[in-house]
Amino acid sequence: MKLKRFFIFIKWGAVLVFVFIFTINASIYTVSKQHIHEKMADLDQARVALIPGAAIFSSGRLSPIFEARVDGAVELYRAGKVSKILVSGDNSTVWYNEVS
C-alpha cells in the first residue's frame, strides 16, 4: 500500500513540475514576444549589442551558438543598428577565456 502511494505521489509531482515549467515558459514567451524581431528593419537603433558568452572549444573555435551570436552582432554593427559590441563571458581560469 505504501508503494502505491509513493508512485501516486511521484506521478502527481511530475505532473506539477511539468505544469510549473510550462506555465513559466508560456509567461516568458508572452512577456518577451514583443521584443523579438525577425527582420533587421524592425529593430530600433541601440548604442550597444551585448553578446552573452558561450562555449569555446580547446582549439579556440567558437561553439555554434556563440558563433551565431557573434555573427548577429556583427550584422547589427554593419547595418548601423549599433555602434559598439560588448562581449561578456567566463574568465574563471587562465585556460578558459570566452571574452578574449
Question: Mind explaining what this structure looks like?
Answer:
4% of the residues are buried. The chain has 100 residues and is of the alpha+beta class. The longest helix has 31 residues, at 2-32. Strand 1, helix 2 (64-78) and strand 2 (82-87) form a beta-alpha-beta unit. The protein has a two-stranded parallel sheet. The chain has two helices and two strands, in the order H-E-H-E.
SSE arrangement:
Layout: H1 2-32, E1 46-51, H2 64-78, E2 82-87
Parallel strand pairs: 1-2
Give descriptors for this structure.
2 helices, alpha+beta, 100 residues
In short:
The protein is built from two helices and two strands, in the order αβαβ. It is of the alpha+beta class and 100 residues long.
Strand-residue fraction?
5-15%
> In this structure, how is the largest beta sheet organized?
2 strands, parallel
Overall shape: it is flat
What is the count of β-strands? Answer: 2
Poorly predicted runs of 5 or more residues = none
End-to-end separation in angstroms reads 60 Å
Taking all residues together, what is the mean pLDDT? Answer: 90
Helix-strand sequence: HEHE
- For the biggest β-sheet, the strand order reads 1-2
Task: Give the helix level as a range of percent.
Answer: 40-55%
Number of helices: 2
